[in-house]
Amino acid sequence: MRTCLTTALTLLATPAMAIDLAPLWDFSQPAVSEQRFRAALDGASDDDRLILLTQIARTHGLRKDFDAARAVLLQVEPSLPAAGAEARTRYFLELGRTWASGTHSPEALTEDAKERARKAFQAALDVATRAGFDGLAIDVIHMFAFVDTAPEQQLHWGQQALAVVGSSSQPAAKRWEASVRNNIGCALHQLGRYDQALAQFQAAVTLRPQRGTDKADAGATRTAWWMVAWTLRALKRPDEALAIQLRLEREADAAGDPDPFVYEELALLFRASGDGDRAAAYEAKHKALSP
Q: What is the Cα–Cα distance from 53 to 58, expressed in whole angstroms?
């Protein structure tokens, strides 16, 4: 099944953020992003240099080279006492991500690793909260769900993040709302509270088009609709779920980005309706695209 926890990949916050990281990031190509960050180190101010190093560490984490990520963060550590709040927040956030994140295998998430991550995330949250960096605070809060993985705990952290979204006037915090509602919906779905989950997923859908029309945003919007259809199937509303999944299949194929999770849901829906031939066809498509 599709991974529930999502991130808005929000990079900006107010007040008084340092370097603008957004133009340097391509999350689909972390190695390219690393090259950009390293090029930006030339002539960077002290705090900007520290922030760039934290992002270089993150590129290693996205490539699952957590030892390399921690080695880069070691270069930041001696300068932390004199560093600004953003640099300190990002240091602790990325340190936590080297111990627990969506790129870690289940086997890597040992109790020791989760405890190290929890301490680092708490330090990051303390700094971000004191400095008023709401967007960064939400980024940190949503990472706790990779440490506290029970649905009740994930719901708690999702609600905490949504409270910051609701109380903040900062654009960087508001950008998180769709992702936060998605995460809350996933926790509610896992708890069997399907009506409440559907409401959160539908709210996320209404927010997604505001994010833009580039490929990443279009993919995020399709994922938001997939969550709606997934929950409609759980609510025994297969006709509505099928209509959405068939539309998502057409849209993903047109974008040159076929979605194995759409195929998986279509197989389940057709299997439940008694159409074994179409179910088998989608099962084959899902298998062909699955890792």
A: 9
Q: What is the pLDDT of residues 233-264, one digit of tens each?
A: 999 999 999 999 999 999 999 999 999 999 99
Give a three-class secondary structure readout of the chain: CCCCCCCCCCCCCCCCCCCCCHHHCCCCCHHHHHHHHHHHCCCCCHHHHHHHHHHHHHHHHHCCCHHHHHHHHHHHHHHHHHCCHHHHHHHHHHHHHCCCCCCCCHHHCCHHHHHHHHHHHHHHHHHHHHHCCHHHHHHHHHHHHHCCCCHHHHHHHHHHHHHHHHHCCCHHHHCCHHHHHHHHHHHHHHCCCHHHHHHHHHHHHHHHHHHCCCHHHHHHHHHHHHHHHHHHHHCCCHHHHHHHHHHHHHHHHHCCCCCHHHHHHHHHHHHHHCCHHHHHHHHHHHHHHCC
Burial tier of 100 (Cβ tally within 10 Å: 0-12, 13-18, 19+):
buried
CA 138 to chain centre: 11
Average confidence (pLDDT) over 53-66? 98
Phi-psi region of 187 (alpha: psi -120 to 50; beta: other; left: phi over 0): alpha
Pull the structure tokens for residue 25. Answer: 């990031």
